[in-house]
Design a protein that fits this description.
With 386 residues, this protein is α/β, with parallel strands linked by helices. The chain contains 12 helices and 14 strands. The protein binds pyridoxal-5'-phosphate. The site of pyridoxal-5'-phosphate has 15 residues, from helix 4 and helix 5.
Length: 386
């Protein structure tokens, strides 16, 4: 069944191309500079972007790399994670958080999430720790920092490094501290749909300790130092100069984009409440100490109606997505390769209930209204059907 909005223009979940249009000329000019320089790797734009990011995050060093998947891998290599070691992380996250652990021969130890924030439940950390635990890896999912006070408290008491997966959380804060500055190492993604998206893949590591930074640089360059001398086995992972050039320009808009995302999120929440829809769907919660950057605005829809709402929105030309439908402990490739001390019930429930709605910066007030109106029509029609 379709509503009257069928004739209106589509509202995509994301608008990557549209978001880049206002800076098109600036970006092209900078790309031309890189092209003419021939310095496609380790060009000056890389160093400049790294130092701007280090300052923004509030750490001494930022190290560019090819993706956040690589950043996570490198971070764990720098924490000496190896075969049969254990790393504690949520199961409700993107695949890369856990695949990096398994790639090193280590064992992911999954813990459940807090239902309101979708982030790791710190109460399950202590009893998940063993003498093989080499790192705790909270994910700041959807753009909101995990409960870092409790996480750091357990980690510090037990002498375990924290690696922050801040892929979705650039510029997010916890008690005023920027994501990626609280643990030993922070990992960022510039995948095109992230709040700061490149034009291809890109990643970054944030780190305060200069020795760890040097080790990360070395590990990202084949473990080579000096040239053609290898004291350890690294990987080849670089943020290339074209990406750094694009990111350096786009970074100038990030604060503004985050404000727009916040305004969209607030408008959704206000309108859902105004229409009483907060009784039909779960509105995302923000915790007191977190400055959310809304990489996703994710609602919950219970009792098997989530997929029907997604289809309804799609019929009305509105994009939405399920991040993530299958928790990592249910992925066939991880079968028999992880440990979990707890049943992960909230993780499984989230996978059944979540739906992310369009929240990109260029979304207009009218478009948010249309999405809410469409949700309202869905619940009204399913109430009639029931
Ligand atoms: C939470 C999380 N971790 C890691 C990654 C991996 O990032 P990349 O695509 O840059 O490798 C992503 C990307 O989607 C992510 O959302």
């Amino acid at each position: 069944m379709k509503t009257a909005s069928q004739e209106l223009a589509p509202i995509p979940l994301l608008d990557v191309a549209g978001g880049n249009q206002p800076q098109r000329e600036e970006i092209l000019a900078e790309l031309a500079k890189v092209l003419d320089s021939g310095k496609f790797l380790y060009g000056p734009q890389v160093q400049q972007f790294e130092s701007t990011m280090a300052e923004r995050i509030g750490v001494k060093q930022a190290v560019g790399c090819a993706s956040c998947s690589d950043a996570l891998l490198l971070a764990m290599m720098a924490c000496d994670v190896g075969p049969l070691d254990e790393v504690i992380l949520p199961s409700f996250t993107f695949f890369a958080t856990a695949s990096a652990v398994v790639r090193l021969g280590a064992v992911p130890v999954f813990v459940d999430i807090i239902p309101g924030t979708f982030n790791i439940d710190p109460n399950q950390l202590e009893s998940s720790i063993t003498n093989r635990t080499r790192a705790i890896m909270p994910v700041h999912l959807f753009g909101q920092c995990a409960a870092m006070d409790e996480i750091l408290d357990v980690a510090d008491r037990r002498g375990i490094p924290v690696i922050e997966d801040a892929a979705q959380a650039i510029d997010a804060k916890w008690r005023g501290q920027v994501a990626g500055s609280m643990g030993r190492i922070g990992c960022f993604s510039f995948y095109p749909t992230k709040n700061l998206g490149g034009m291809g893949d890109g990643g970054l590591l944030s780190v305060d300790d200069e020795d760890v930074a040097s080790r990360l640089r070395k590990l990202a360059a084949h473990g080579m130092q000096p040239r053609y001398h290898h004291s350890e086995i690294g990987i080849n992972s670089r943020l290339d100069t074209f990406q750094a050039a694009v990111l350096g320009i786009k970074l100038r808009q990030l604060t503004h984009w985050v404000e727009q995302r916040r305004a969209n999120a607030q408008q959704y929440t206000d309108l859902f409440r105004e229409h009483g829809l907060d009784k039909s769907l779960g509105i995302p919660e923000t915790t007191e100490h977190a400055d959310h950057v809304w990489n996703q605005y994710t609602v919950r829809v219970s009792a098997g109606r989530r997929d029907a709402l997604k289809a309804w929105l799609s019929d009305n030309k509105i994009g939405s997505e399920v991040y993530y439908p299958v928790p990592l402990h249910r992925q066939p490739c991880f079968e028999g390769r992880f440990r979990a001390e707890f049943p992960l019930l909230e993780t499984e429930r989230a996978a059944r209930e979540v739906l992310s709605l369009p929240c990109f910066p260029e979304l207009t007030v009218d478009e948010v209204r249309r999405v809410v109106e469409c949700c309202r029509a869905f619940f009204a029609s399913s109430a009639v059907a029931a």
